[in-house]
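FIELD: query
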Amino acid sequence: MKNFEQWNGFKGNRWKEKIDVRNFIKLNYTPYDGDDSFLEGPTEATNKLWGKLQELQKAERANGGVLDMETEVVTSLTAYGPGYIDEDLKNLEKVVGLQTDKPLKRAFMPYGGIKMAEQACETYGYEVSDKIKDIFNNYEFKTHNQGVFDIYTPEMKMARHNKILTGLPDTYGRGRIVGDYRRVALYGIDALIEGKKKDFAACDREGMRRYDFQLREEIADQIRALKGMKQWLWHMAMTFPSLQKMQEKHSSGCTSDIWQQSRHRTVLQ
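FIELD: result
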């Protein structure tokens, strides 16, 4: 059973023996039945940054709904370094990082289907780089869109082509992934990787079935994503030395001091 010093004072043991955020919250949350008098108004920094963001949103609408689009970099967890709403106001930002390298710049997401991604760019007057087109069109690189088309029957293709059926899975340009980052704060990335490796080993058995192969592949992807998060944190720590201590906690231990600071606040479920 793990026992980080940041966990001192919290109730329960089950969440210490295994990754179980739900159990931690259930045993340690404090209901709040008061009003909103504890809330504070926006700070001067927030007002300045929000004002700048509103200017960018206005420019985006004036530009037809898209301010800028990425055409050279395929998005990933580590595709970009720190990004700012405004370089001149970056000292006011407490949370550093954007989806791309500029505010409101659309990321390039071709994994749902390279043709859809290209068409999205062309709709707003952008051209995807030849290098990306070459990789996704001329090499053995199957996107979700292509995989779905490969299993369509002729009848399905005909119905889709004639707009009899719509909303089929090949048209899903992007998925929704809900990240439970409370796990990182409570356990640290290294502990989560260790737990996933145990899950991976647990599904190694004789006579593995198709489900077992799929599960092992998904767990391997999860481990890879956690390592990518750790790589991104190191990059941030090298860029901002003041974040190095927090990065070490995220990676090697837990960051439950965050929970300690808010233990008397409400966790509403």
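FIELD: remark
The beta strands are 68-74, 105-108.
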